[in-house]
């Protein structure tokens, strides 16, 4: 298990190097970031020269990348075009994104798993069909439609929640968090439902009934434990992607999180900020994947991570 | 430990009268599927006494496992529905009991061992935990004590290194060991009735014998009534007291094991016995029963076996199907021609060469001649039958 973990961590290094280079090249391909820095008027030539020299923009791609890597190895994520360290920009935004992720994941686990389990044990009945149809609806509507609708209905018309979340307080983030989790809620309830249906048919669940266990125990212990293995995997990778920030949702609700930061940085062709933010995102994703794989071995003793 | 608890348990609620544990009376089960209604059990009746082993024998789809599940109360419903009959345990019809009371019977009173222990044990819990769960949930035993009892049970079913392996998972055991764990779990609360549903089918032949002798040993030790469900004639010969042969959801013959092996009273049983491969008939065709078991959605009119029966007459094709009736001492058969069958080759005691009846049995040359042979040998073998249960030779039962 320990050697497996170490091996997996070492495997992350080439992935990270590749990811940073691809990103760096992609931002480089966007063109000259100094264009349009000064609004409608062209910038003074002196300013542009200084700006280019400061960020090594006058150098070829590989040299720029080399400079970047050099800083990265010293633990420096670079400097954003606003002159702040990228690390600082990320640090002030991550708490908001984490809060948003937690809310979304809680929705997924509570609503998604509960709906899935109920649908699964009442397969073919009304509740099952209700869950199937409503999840299909959620899956088929794009997130910006759901987001804007939710904002309009619950934020503006009904005023149950603040329509925007500029401060990033937990209360403000409830609605965006729910919107963010909605799609995964749908996926998780379907995944859970199918998994429960499948497990209820297994021989060991029949054995559990033959042992004279109560129905509640047969389902909550003998069925769920096995049914939730694929669900846990899904949630793990979902945390990884949600932690990267949700560009659409954060834009709709004006959440000052990682997603918004990445969006703005791309707009400004701010290479170091984009690469820095996405780099962290990739690390989080890889780490979550590792945790999921390790957890898998714990949840299912038949799988060994050696 | 367990036996003292048993006394307490039994005096509190369930007490068999005259040793009669289980009476299944005209049980009927059907499966309502999208394609139609499959009548899986069509009026099955039998009794089980303390310390008795009843073997239910039949092909797949004959309804033996469904009967067991209906008795246990673990029939998947829907699609399975019990549409009639009674299952009386110690005199009480348990089919009418509320689920909560029914549940309390499963485990302490009636318990079950399944066919494939690898899939029947939960893959994500340690075996000891799964055994201990019986004590914890039925008797409220605490974790530590329940675990200690699980170890003792694992030792009782002869699992080497039980103490060390109590925390291992099912996939870490061999097939035979897993089946032992399954058995340990089933006998944990000292049930009065143990239903073993093809307990050895998934195992190697050598391991089969070990598991069967373990079951027999435990049964004798605890005076359990054992229902042994199998399609394997070889398995039942040593162990069973009585045999019930099932076909298309009915019991077609019920007899003491020696009588049945010596002289089948139903053409289907006869076919089953003939289809056991014999070493001394090397080079000959295996005597298989022609045709296929009926589709349970369209069971033939009259006797369900008539399309495959070499003795079939007009009366066999007409409804109602022949009832299960007394055709001899302590034996029942559901066949219009049982008497002819039983008389045909004579009783095992009489050495009756029967070429005449063999030719006249209407089944055609090969089968008839073979049949004659059979009678011959069985005649010579008759005085041995008393020892058969002990000597463990299965083929001995069908004539060697």
TrEMBL record, chain A:
Keyword Aminoacyl-tRNA synthetase: no
Source organism, top-level taxon: Bacteria
Record has Amino-acid biosynthesis as a keyword: no
ABC transmembrane type-1 domain segment(s): 94-296
Subcellular location: Cell membrane
Residues passing through the membrane, by range: 12-31, 98-118, 130-150, 170-188, 274-299
GO biological process: transmembrane transport
GO cellular component: plasma membrane
Family designation: Belongs to the binding-protein-dependent transport system permease family.
Name of the protein this chain belongs to: Oligopeptide transport system permease protein
High-level lineage: Bacteria, Bacillati, Actinomycetota, Actinomycetes, Propionibacteriales
UniProtKB/TrEMBL annotation, chain B:
ABC transporter domain residues: 22-273
Low complexity biased stretches: 345-358
Family as reported in the entry's similarity comment: Belongs to the ABC transporter superfamily.
Cellular location(s): Cell membrane
Compositionally biased intervals (Basic and acidic residues): 368-381
Start and end residues of each stretch annotated as Disordered: 345-400
Acidic residues composition bias: residue spans: 382-394
One MF annotation (Gene Ontology) recorded for this entry: ATP binding
GO cellular component assignments: plasma membrane
GO biological process terms held by the UniProt record: peptide transport
Keyword annotations: ATP-binding, Cell membrane, Membrane, Nucleotide-binding, Transport
NCBIfam families to which the protein is assigned, alphabetical: oligo_HPY
Tagged with keyword Glycoprotein: no
InterPro entries documented for this protein: AAA+_ATPase, ABC_Ni/Peptide_Import, ABC_transporter-like_ATP-bd, ABC_transporter-like_CS, Oligopep_ABC_C, P-loop_NTPase
Membrane-related topology note: Peripheral membrane protein
Protein name: Oligopeptide transport system ATP-binding protein
Pfam families found in the cross-reference section: ABC_tran, oligo_HPY
